[in-house]
Design brief:
It is a single chain. By secondary structure, the protein is an all-alpha fold. The protein has one domain (about 5-195). The chain is built from nine helices and two strands. It has helices at about 5-20, 30-45, 50-60, 75-100, 105-115, 125-150, 155-170, 170-180, 190-195; strands at about 25, 30. A two-stranded antiparallel ribbon has the order 1-2. A hairpin with a 2-residue loop joins strand 1 (about 25) and strand 2. Helix 4 (about 75-100) packs antiparallel against helix 5. The radius of gyration is 17 Å and the shape is globular. The mean pLDDT is about 90.
């Protein structure tokens, strides 16, 4: 249920305008704009009755991500985790500022920032929903391309990556993925099924 359709539409327009500035292209579109639209499309399939906070958070999940490159942080796992944590804060703050411009109240902004910032995962339903949708989008649209960039990865490495993604998801999202809710990448299907089976 959207409390104020005009305000909601304006926030989505502002999110999309921000992502349309992405200089990186994917399928002829700004990369993060396409990603945001895929997130919304997946949410519509997975939880069509999702509330306003979830819809806003899903659309803002990667907002202006290209402006915080991985290269700004040190190499190695600590640098990677610092980058991810910094991104969560950046996305949350950016979404909050654009929502203010659209006329949202601070309470709703705080809820969206919690979800976009990946806070209270496993206990906050909106945060978990954003995580579920991002994992489903990754599996359907990006996992195969990622595999092509990591040709040196062993089967064990891949099983670990798939299991990490799987374990971030709620049981409902896991069931959705394995029961035809998403298009699993055919080339990786044996690995995915093996990882999920815990072999």
């Amino acid at each position: 249920m959207i409390a104020n359709q005009e305000r909601f539409k304006l926030a989505i327009t502002l999110f999309d305008a921000a992502n349309a500035e992405d200089p990186n292209q994917d399928e002829g579109q700004p990369k993060e704009l396409l990603y945001a639209r895929r997130m919304t499309e997946m949410l519509g399939r997975f939880v069509p009755q999702a509330g306003e906070v979830a819809q806003l958070a899903v659309r803002a999940q990667h907002i202006r991500r290209w402006t915080v490159p991985r290269g700004n942080y040190p190499l190695g796992k600590p640098g990677y985790f610092a980058w991810r944590t910094g991104l969560y804060r950046f996305h949350a703050e950016t979404a909050g500022e654009l929502m203010r411009q659209a006329g949202y109240d601070e309470a709703t902004i705080a809820q969206v920032k919690t979800a976009v910032g990946k806070q209270d995962l496993k206990t906050n339903p909106d945060t978990q929903l954003v995580e579920d949708v991002s994992c489903l989008v990754f599996i359907e649209h990006y996992m195969l391309g990622f595999a092509g960039q990591q040709a040196e990865y062993t089967e064990q490495k891949w099983l670990g990556i798939i299991r990490k993604t799987w374990n971030k998801m709620s049981p409902v999202a896991q069931a959705f993925a394995t029961n035809g809710g998403i298009r699993l990448p055919e080339a990786l299907l044996p690995l995915i099924l093996k990882a999920v089976a815990g072999e």
